[in-house]
Amino acid sequence: MFRKSETARLRWLFDKARTLLSNGSALAASRNFLGPLIPKRLLMSVVPLTSIRFSRLLLTGAAGSLGQVLRPRLKAYCDTLRVSDISDLAAAGAGEETVQCALEDAEGVKTLLAGVEVVVHLGGVSTEKPWATVLPANIAGVVNLYEAARLNGVKRVVFASSNHAIGFYRQSETIDNKVLSKPDGFYGLSKAFGENCAQLYWDRWGIETVSLRIGSSFPEPRDRRMLSTWLSYDDLERLVVASLTAPQVAHTIVYGMSDNRAVFWDNSGAKHVGFKPLDSSERFRDAIEAKQPTIDRNDPAAIFQGGSFVKATPHG
Description:
Layout: H1 4-20, H2 24-34, H3 40-46, E1 54-60, H4 65-74, E2 78-85, E3 96-100, H5 106-112, E4 118-121, H6 131-152, E5 156-160, H7 186-205, E6 208-214, H8 226-229, H9 233-245, E7 251-256, H10 285-291, H11 300-303
């Protein structure tokens, strides 16, 4: 275990090294060399996955669970990180700007995207809710975001879609990124709408998007289903960075999952994005199966890929 003073020295060393690393291969080499020597979480935070940097990167939904994970990590990939949410945001750190903005406020969103080069869009309602709750942020809000991107000349968006856009496919099948959407509720429906909005803005106005059908991104999987859908936080960073930096993406849908043994989703149609997960849920399998040795095969949550969302009532 590293003492605080040692950690501080490592951070100083890596900050200095960053200024000298001028290409992706050097960054990769530094990770490979340093990986066995320091804690993985520290390595991820100080040695970025790519040398590509953006002038200003916008992260919406920065106060949410995944927004809080990505906020400190994305600072390595931009000169200025602008973070936004309707909820309170922690004070801006070095190289940060904080903006409170409701996605349904079209003029506010237009201002929010001014001067932005790329967007990571996590904002909006993130669970099953009545339609009146989902509509403002997830439907009007996503149109406002893309309109603001068009008006401000933003050319790439990473859109946090969800596995719930295809939640009514069965767990007994493996699907690719070309299947028709089968949302499992109003939340999933809003994510399917967002994917179609992304397609429109690529076809009509050339704004590229990678839509991330995120599985289950938590510190560890919680049940048998999540052994297939789990996405580690480190792989989430890899997914977002690959989506931001791939040379050409048009509108591409990518499933957000780690390198799990048994999966529902096939990412072979998105290899051009370059996402290569390195983590796996397999190390949690024994504990999960001990906790949940059997499943009710008649339970819709065990039949459909959306899990418990297929049973969540959308009407309050």
